[in-house]
TrEMBL record:
GO terms for molecular function: oxidoreductase activity, acting on the CH-OH group of donors, NAD or NADP as acceptor. PANTHER family: BLL7886 PROTEIN (PTHR42760:SF135), SHORT-CHAIN DEHYDROGENASES/REDUCTASES FAMILY MEMBER (PTHR42760). This is SDR family oxidoreductase. Keywords: Oxidoreductase.
């Protein structure tokens, strides 16, 4: 077990923790000896992740939670506190994509648009879900006088991305929320930061055509696509006392990507 960040017995919630970056993040905290609650709507993937983390000999649990459901979120937070007594870290990782152009136009005719349903779904999970989870956890952190809230933004928040009006809007919104909460919660000993990943080799990225992947690498100065562990390591560091004076910041974990070059 890798330990070195002072996170032994800390209580951590990772939303969207059953796959991809979330799973890697939950595992890294468990490797540090933290007690981890994995939130996800995919019970099968959650059970698999739970079984993997249990091998690390640290307390872990899986909770089937839809972050859009405020009642379910508040119940899950209460269960974590009842089980382990407090909450030290919230990682707002859960997110979805529903890509599509704002308007598709061909030969003078509108052939498609981004639907209201797809726009609302992404706003719901990626933005409202973070709001709901943070609102539920913050009172416990305020009462105990400390805590860390971390949220998953993206490089698209700064650069935009073709076909991602909804997704880019949520990731930009998370940066604004992070800065706002940093102002509001800092006086209670709660640090609030965001991480902005670039291209990360999740299952979704791995399924892309080889030519697209090559283009991603060409746009990334370090010459590779990121691994979920690259982001997970950033979360662990930001949650630790080694980052005690980092507050209201957005950490780019993108290999120095320069879009359009």
């Amino acid at each position: 077990m890798t330990k070195g960040y002072g996170l032994q017995d800390k209580v951590v919630i990772v939303t969207g923790g059953a796959a991809g970056i979330g799973r890697a993040t939950a595992k890294r905290f468990a490797e540090e000896g933290a007690r981890v609650s994995i939130w996800d709507m995919n019970a099968e993937a959650g059970a698999a992740t739970l079984a993997d983390l249990k091998q690390l000999d640290t307390p872990v649990m899986f909770q089937a939670v839809n972050v859009v459901d405020a009642e379910a979120v508040e119940k899950a937070v209460a269960e974590v506190v009842e089980t382990w007594g407090h909450i030290d870290v919230l990682v707002n990782n859960a997110g979805i994509t529903r890509d599509g152009q704002l308007v598709k136009f061909k030969e003078g005719v509108v052939t498609g648009t981004m639907s209201d349903a797809n726009f609302d779904a992404v706003i719901g999970v990626n933005l409202r879900g973070v709001f709901v989870a943070t609102r539920a956890v913050a009172p416990y952190m305020i009462k105990q006088g400390h805590g860390v809230i971390l949220s998953a933004s993206s490089v698209v928040a700064a650069f935009g991305n073709f076909g991602q009006t909804n997704y880019a809007a949520t990731k930009a919104g998370l940066i604004a929320m992070t800065k706002t909460w940093a102002r509001e919660l800092g006086k209670y000993g709660i640090r609030v930061n965001a991480v902005a990943p670039g291209f990360i080799m999740t299952d979704m990225v791995a399924a892309m055509p080889e030519k697209v992947l090559e283009g991603m690498v060409a746009h990334t100065p370090v010459g590779r696509i990121g691994a979920p562990e690259d982001v997970a390591n950033s979360y662990v560091w930001l949650a630790s006392d080694q980052a005690a004076f980092i507050h209201g910041a957005t950490l780019a974990v993108d290999g120095g990507i320069v879009l359009g070059t």
